[in-house]
Design goal:
- This protein has a domain of 199 residues: 2-Layer Sandwich (Chloramphenicol Acetyltransferase), CATH 3.30.559.10.
- 23% of the residues lie in helices and 25% in strands.
- It is built from 8 helices and 21 strands.
- Strands 11, 14, 17, 18, 19, 20 and 21 form a 7-stranded mixed β-sheet that branches. The protein has a 4-stranded antiparallel β-sheet with strand order 1-8-6-3, with no helix packed on it.
- Strand 20 and strand 21 form a beta hairpin.
- Helix 5 crosses helix 6.
- The longest helix has 18 residues.
- The chain is globular.
């Protein structure tokens, strides 16, 4: 009997939730056939089978959230001897084989088994650490269950703007179920939706309390851990140059109407900027790099990550071989990745393997920013807002020009100011040469 374990669906992902089982015990399983659908804070993905045979026990019920490396199910491989004795595994829960249901891939089945989802931080588990059996986690302690919520409960509460601290739980140990939330809805006055990045906890006691306790959502928790790691591991430096992008703005103005008519969405300055970044990275490959396996690796392929602010937090999907795409090709890839990021439909390959990050902070009106390096990458550049202002020209004449700041943060372990400054100077020349 072969054991299928929870994979690591992303570089910083430490756990996942089983949304739907496609196979039940006794079902025939073909090679690469999807076994289940897994949701993390960044992606939703199907788990393909690496074996051909017969589905065995389901060890993690539908709706359960477990860490990377935890056994999910058994598969009896066709024509092979068992690789692990059944006695070495924990007994499958009574709800391990839920009935089939006809909902969509992101829907919750009508009779979703009870599950607990921590809203507080959990210890990170790397994919390199094998797990022989499902660990006994604090999340399964009946005394603590009232503080944890299932994915369905979290989604429903967020959609309806419900403070879960006000809901009385009827589940084991006082845990709040989806039915508890649904029953609470009619008695709840209309309220503005809660911030998607966090679930609001109990307010400080007393009338006119000075603050509310906010429990981090899984996405916000992951972002916090990732950025903390970046600041702790990488000694980061920052620099900025000012660019005259009058020609760039004029070119985008000339081309945007035709592009929008053909493609159906707006053409921004970002693909032009990214194309210039890719050209410059070819001259400065030391910025197109990652720290991996204790060594610094300079990459040939330009796999550029773009920062996308979604309703559930910041994600950085990757445009692979971005240097091989035209401006319009980049625009199409950006639109596709952004749409799927907001819909939580990014795949594993969409978020892994970035070698350099571009951030369009100018879309928020920013004129200067200090980005944090997206480790294990070694550099990140921002495109700030292009603003018109009077500028003293070479002949001392004053003219109104479109000016934009470009900011770069870099890992000082990987390169020095000489290389970083050279990269920005070359990028400035390319941006200013666009007509």
């Amino acid at each position: 009997m072969t054991i299928v374990k929870m994979p690591q669906l992303g570089e910083s992902v430490t756990e996942g939730t089983i949304i739907q089982w496609f196979k039940q015990p006794g079902d025939a399983v073909k090679l690469d056939e999807p076994l289940c659908e897994i949701e993390t804070e960044k992606v939703t993905a199907e788990l393909p089978s690496e074996f051909e045979g017969t589905m065995g026990r389901i060890l993690v019920p539908q709706g359960e959230t477990v860490e990377v490396g935890v056994p999910l199910c058994e598969i009896e491989v066709a024509g092979a001897a068992a690789t692990a004795p059944a006695a070495a595994l924990p007994a499958a829960p009574a709800t391990a084989a839920p009935a089939r249901w006809s909902g969509g891939p992101m829907a919750i089945p009508p009779e979703e088994p009870p599950v607990v989802l921590p809203v507080a931080a959990t210890a990170a588990v790397t994919s390199a650490a094998p797990v022989a059996a499902a660990p006994k986690s604090p999340r399964t302690n009946p005394e603590d269950r009232s503080r944890y919520y299932s994915p369905a409960v979290m989604r429903l509460a967020t959609e309806r703007g419900i403070d879960l601290s006000q809901v009385t739980g009827s589940g084991i140990g006082g845990r709040i179920t989806r039915k508890d939330v649904e029953a609470f809805i009619p008695a709840t006055p209309a309220a503005a939706p809660m911030a998607p990045a966090a679930a609001v906890g109990a307010a400080a006691s007393g009338t006119g309390a000075a603050y509310q306790v906010v429990a981090l959502s899984p996405t916000r928790k992951t972002i916090a851990e990732h950025l903390t790691r970046s600041n702790v591991e990488a000694p980061q430096a920052w620099t900025m140059v000012e660019c005259d992008v009058t020609g760039l703005v004029a070119r985008r103005t000339r081309e945007k109407e035709r592009f929008e008519q053909q493609e159906g969405f707006s053409l921004t300055l970002l693909p032009y900027f990214t194309a210039a970044v890719c050209e410059t990275l070819r001259d400065y490959p030391m910025l197109n790099a990652r720290w991996e396996g204790g060594e610094l690796r300079h990459y040939t392929a330009l796999n550029v990550a773009i920062a996308v602010a979604t309703e559930t937090g910041l994600v950085t999907p990757v445009v692979r071989d971005a240097g091989d795409l035209s401006v319009f090709g980049l625009a199409k890839r950006f639109d596709d990745l952004t749409r799927r990021a907001h819909a939580r439909k990014l795949r594993i390959e969409d978020i892994d393997g970035g070698t350099f990050t571009v951030n369009n902070t100018g879309s928020f009106g920013s004129i200067a920013s200090k980005p944090i390096v997206n480790v294990p990458q070694v550099a990140i550049v921002t495109m700030e807002r292009a603003v018109k202002r009077p500028v003293v020209m070479a002949n001392d004449a004053i003219a109104v020009r479109s000016m934009m700041n470009v900011c770069l943060s870099f890992d000082h372990r990987a390169l020095d100011g000489f290389e970083a400054g050279g990269f920005l100077a070359a990028l400035k020349r390319r941006l200013e040469a666009i007509e």
